[in-house]
Fold this protein.
Amino acid sequence: MANLRDIRRRIKSVKNTAQITRAMQLVAAAKMKKAQDQAVAGRDYADLLNKVLVNLKENADEESHPLLEQREEGKELVLVISTDKGLCGPLNTNLGKAVRSDISADADIVTVGRKLRTQLTKLGRDLVADFEVKDPVPFAEARPIAKLLTQLFLDGKYSKVSVAFNNFVSTLNQEPTVVQLLPITSDKLGEKRSYEGMGNDVKVEETDHAAALSKDYLFEPSSQGVLESLLPLYINFQVYQMLVESRASEHSARMVAMKAATDNANKFIKELTLEYNKLRQAAITAELLEITTAMKAME
């Protein structure tokens, strides 16, 4: 009977765990929908901004802008966007592998999220700054991050600024990605990034470039002046979009992980229930045999 009590206790414990993981799954699904809606809402704006930048780079002196300056020597600065909480599967582990393999050995780090911040500091990386971002992501909280990255680059402390984040491809697929943010290369200036299309691999065709360049824009006071004002906005929006992608990836991965945990718990409950019924049936059979044996002995 001790075994039956233990199994009942285990069934109760697993049922409680399944209730918790189910609740976390539903919360993550609701948050993922909000984060995905944020990214989708910025698609049209991103597309128009890119088309204007395509036209600007053809009408302005790119070499004169410091954000376009290519530097041969200097350290790399990397913005690493991870999660504050766990229970989201291998999301942070895969991003950590991408960071270690794709960035330079002496790169300094700016972090958003506690998970990889702790890991990277243990590996001896120099932490320049750490930011906390609310959920859902406000655009205003991307500005100080973009401003710091831009200022450190303009001050000449770093020759390259990169961003490591999880690109939301689908509910079941989040891709760890490392992209160069600064300097902005002229051939990528007006390119539509795949993560702006929420993982739909949006590509800019030649016809799209031609259409953008054929627009009759009038720049006041000049195309160079507009470029100087627009490039910081472009950097701000890129950082914001990466934050939103990372947050959508986090909630998606957590929803999938919690669904898998709930399914495994329910499967385990069925197995324990079956084992409990077998032991209970065996105990009843043993008792009936004992009664029958005693009755025969009394005859």
